[in-house]
Amino acid sequence: MKGQIQIKVTKRSPAYWRVTFDHPPLNIFGPEMLPQVNEIITALETDEQVKVVVFDSAVEGFFLIHLDFLANLDDLAHLPPGRTGLHPWPEMLGRLSRAPVVSIASIRGRATGMGSELALACDMRFASREKAILSQFEVGAGLVPGGGPMAQLTRLMGRGRALEVILSADDIPGDLAELYGYVNRSLPDADLDGFVDALVGRIASFDKRTIMDTRRLVNVAGLPSDIEIESGWNACVASMARPATQERIKELIGRGFCRPGEAENRLGDFVGKHAPSMERTQ
Amino acid sequence: MKGQIQIKVTKRSPAYWRVTFDHPPLNIFGPEMLPQVNEIITALETDEQVKVVVFDSAVEGFFLIHLDFLANLDDLAHLPPGRTGLHPWPEMLGRLSRAPVVSIASIRGRATGMGSELALACDMRFASREKAILSQFEVGAGLVPGGGPMAQLTRLMGRGRALEVILSADDIPGDLAELYGYVNRSLPDADLDGFVDALVGRIASFDKRTIMDTRRLVNVAGLPSDIEIESGWNACVASMARPATQERIKELIGRGFCRPGEAENRLGDFVGKHAPSMERTQ
Amino acid sequence: MKGQIQIKVTKRSPAYWRVTFDHPPLNIFGPEMLPQVNEIITALETDEQVKVVVFDSAVEGFFLIHLDFLANLDDLAHLPPGRTGLHPWPEMLGRLSRAPVVSIASIRGRATGMGSELALACDMRFASREKAILSQFEVGAGLVPGGGPMAQLTRLMGRGRALEVILSADDIPGDLAELYGYVNRSLPDADLDGFVDALVGRIASFDKRTIMDTRRLVNVAGLPSDIEIESGWNACVASMARPATQERIKELIGRGFCRPGEAENRLGDFVGKHAPSMERTQ
Q1: Which residues, in sequence order, are CB contacts of B241 under 8 Å at separation 6+?
Q2: Contacts with B221 (C-beta within 8 Å, 6 or more apart), sequence order
Q3: Cβ–Cβ below 8 Å for C221 and A279
Q4: Contact C125 A157 (CB under 8 A)
Q5: Are C13 and A281 in contact (CB under 8 A)?
Q6: Cα distance from C254 to chain A (closest Cα, Å)?
């Protein structure tokens, strides 16, 4: 797969870019996608005309999901830190939240793990009522999520609902995501694209400098600090290294995790049903 | 208009004051209203019996809207700073949030710009489901909002929804305002006054010292610092001074902005449709 | 009553404990319950197998309500401070929020005063749509709430709704509690137990270390500091000492407060209707 482009950038106009995840059948996050995301964010940071970027998916049923644990992950661990000293993944997310471009996640299908984290790093999230499912499945696999959902979800929906979302590791459909503030709104699937396009059209017609000066002040009130994000990342790395977690992931892979089928189609149920024997204290 | 009173104070009882914006036909915020607001807030700060103040409107269709850009704005720029060093407008809002009186915005009609900012500085906001429309239209006019909505809305509804409200510069009707937490609740228009009166009656029957000691602690958790508000105000002033913004406002005025008619009746649509040519990069 | 156990701990499994308030007829919080709560929290802090604890009630109509003002409260005032220097009550709540166990309030009946504060200290709150009523009634009795609701509710629902809940001192039924984020969700009464059990089953099957490392990071973003809580407690103690408050509580007791009947069955109405004469400024 290496070298293949799985994330497509379409410039609908100089001001309106569309970034489409196109890595069938699961839109699973392969390590090779990290440099692609990096390149796109760098382009968004440096282009002078782009005002709005929409992230969406070309793969039925999946917006963007978690890391591909079947891939060779060695490269990932050894990536040099970014400019802020953070690991490249959380750093890219923070750069997206601060880049001089308004970012919108248009969510159809499953957004979990890194897919949910990318959506949370965007400025806004709109979900298909029928087809969107958001989650942070990690705790169900013995992992602390690494890309900031503890910091982001707590700020969006408060401590109680954030703990439910993250500790249950369960699927959150569109309407519940709207109730909890996980997404801005959940819209009928047939209306989602039209709604997002109209919103982009409005914002793209406004003055870029004004937009960015305004957003900087929302970020002051709404974005977590790098230190808080780093603390979450370190907990993620530590959890990944534990033998119990390695066992847990191996067991889940044995049952279909990271491959097309029921495991990924119903990930919330899957991690809930297949509790590792070591944990069967109930 | 100078010298005329456009904001009426009615004391329904020593404990319950009503402040009514009565500046037909638009309840537009003329520079001459600033000293009137200041006087009212000073009275609220110093009166020993008032416990609750309700802000409402006597003008059909408009709660309180933005600055009157057709007025002579020179005085506004040269007003001496208030006690905290902030510009008088954001300072008055902060004083209202901290004054020893519970403040409630009862919103019928449009609340945009300074009208929305005043509502956000109140302790609570209740909206007519059929008749309330809230917005921060400023970004659509090339302006960074100056009275704190980046700080306030982000704390009320989270970063994602705050960015949508402020960057879309679009109309937010009562029910969406309730979903997003822009208002406490949206009520059927026929129930709004009765609901607010009953709530005021309750609170006004309680001990003032207890109310204020309690509210001070909510403010610790929920109010932005003066420095954050000042940063927003400075961004507003800088945006106002840009030639592109001046052009933009001139163009909008040419199309009916700040005068009765379709522009103000449908301000969200208006700023979305009439994008300045310089910004037509799409 | 002293020495009697009013809070029952059932271990459904080593990982899943149930703490049931069983102090009929009101589940009123007697001073003798404080050491019982302390003992339970200590057990939750030190047990190595427990992963989830659910708080519920065995008393029809009441989850857990306020302090019993008919009891001898001398002991309460003279309790030595806890490890953090806080009064034992707010300290226990903070310990619960940080204990290495996921805590869930399953709310049927009234949760007010300390009952609401305990629910807010839990990680999650689920409410019976038909039978749950939450409130902080204190301001209606001339008291500043002492167990942190100004800090907690403001973080859960924003300043405007928190001020409404606390300053109105009124009853908040299940659905409104859900809209405001006072609870995670309001569920049909018939579904509540099944929902909570399923959620507990999931979480109890996951790795305890992972759960706790994850929750610690949500706490960083979502829990108030001890200093903020202490400030609220001090305001509570000061309000309690005021003669006006003592008069107010005496008057309410004369009308049925703290005893079975209409006063406690409709506490929101009760404190709203019986305003003390000294406060009749309307």
Answers
A1: none
A2: C150, C151, C154, C155, C159, C162, C224, C228
A3: no
A4: no
A5: yes
A6: 38
**CA A59/CA A61 separation, integer angstroms:** 6
Q: How many residues does chain A have?
A: 282
Is a pLDDT exceeding 90 seen at residue B5?
Answer: no
Q: Is the pLDDT of residue C51 over 90?
A: yes
pLDDT confidence band for A276 (50 / 70 / 90): low
Say which residue the tokens 């109310």 belong to. Answer: B211
Q: Give the model confidence (pLDDT) of A187-209 as tens digits.
A: 999 999 999 999 999 999 999 99
CB C259 within 8 A of CB C70: yes
Residue A13 φ/ψ, nearest 5 degrees: -160, 170
- Please check the confidence at residue C265 and state whether its pLDDT lies above 70: yes
Q: How far apart are CA A246 and CA A242, in angstroms?
A: 6
> Contact at 8 Å (CB) between A50 and A101?
yes
Asked if A165 contacts A138 with a C-beta cutoff of 8 angstroms, the reply is no
Q: Provide the mean pLDDT of chain B.
A: 94
Say yes or no to pLDDT of A212 above 80.
yes
Q: Which residue has the tokens 């509570």?
A: C236
- List chains touching B (3+ CB pairs under 8 A): A, C
Strand segments (E) across B113-223: 124-135, 172-173, 185-187
A161/C155 touch (CB, cutoff 8 Å), yes or no? no
Chain A positions touching B232 (Cβ under 8 A) are 217
CB contact under 8 A, B166 and A218: yes
User: pLDDT at residue A85 above 90?
Assistant: no
Cβ-based contacts of B276 with chain A (< 8 Å): 207
Q: Tens digits of per-residue pLDDT, C61-94?
A: 999 999 999 998 877 767 778 888 899 999 999 9
| CA-to-CA separations, B147 to A244, B150, B171, B232, B233, in angstroms, rounded | 52, 9, 18, 7, 7
Write the residue in A12, A156, A204 that is nearest to B158 by C-beta: A156
Q: Per-residue confidence at A75, pLDDT binned at 50, 70, 90?
A: confident
Which pLDDT score, from 0 to 100, does residue B70 have? 96
Q: In angstroms, what CA-CA distances link A203 with A123, A218, B246?
A: 12, 16, 19
Query: What is the number of residues in chain B?
Result: 282
Residues of A in contact with B166 (CB under 8 A): 214, 218
Entry field: residues in chain C: 282
User: In 3D, which of B231, B243, B216 has the Cα closest to residue B87?
Assistant: B231
Is there a contact between C125 and C184 (Cβ–Cβ < 8 Å)? yes
> CA A19, CA A7: separation in Å to the nearest integer?
7
Alpha helices in C47-172 (DSSP H): 74-77, 88-98, 114-121, 149-168
**Cβ contact B184–C160 (<8 Å):** yes
At A76, the pLDDT band (50, 70, 90 cuts) reads confident
Q: Looking at this predicted complex, what is its ipTM?
A: 0.96
* Residue located via tokens 């709005």: A52
Beta bridge partners of A9: A19
Question: How is A62-117 classified by DSSP, letter by letter?
Answer: EEE--B-TTS--HHHHTPPP-TTSS-HHHHHHHHHHHSSSEEEEEEEEEEETHHHH
* Cα–Cα distance measured from residue A66 to residue A118, given in angstroms and rounded to the nearest whole number: 11
pLDDT band of B81, cuts 50, 70, 90: confident
Largest Cα span, chain A: 58
Burial class of residue B188 (count of CB atoms within 10 Å of its CB; 0-12, 13-18, 19+): exposed
Chains that touch A (3 or more CB pairs under 8 A): B, C
Position A278 scores a pLDDT of: 43
Q: Which residues contact B267 (CB under 8 A, 6 or more apart)?
A: B65, B110, B112, B135, B137, B171
pLDDT-derived band at C101 (thresholds 50, 70, 90) equals: very high
> What's the pLDDT at C4?
80
What's the gap in Å between the CA of B220 and the closest CA on chain C? 8
Q: Which two tokens stand for residue A35?
A: 């440099």
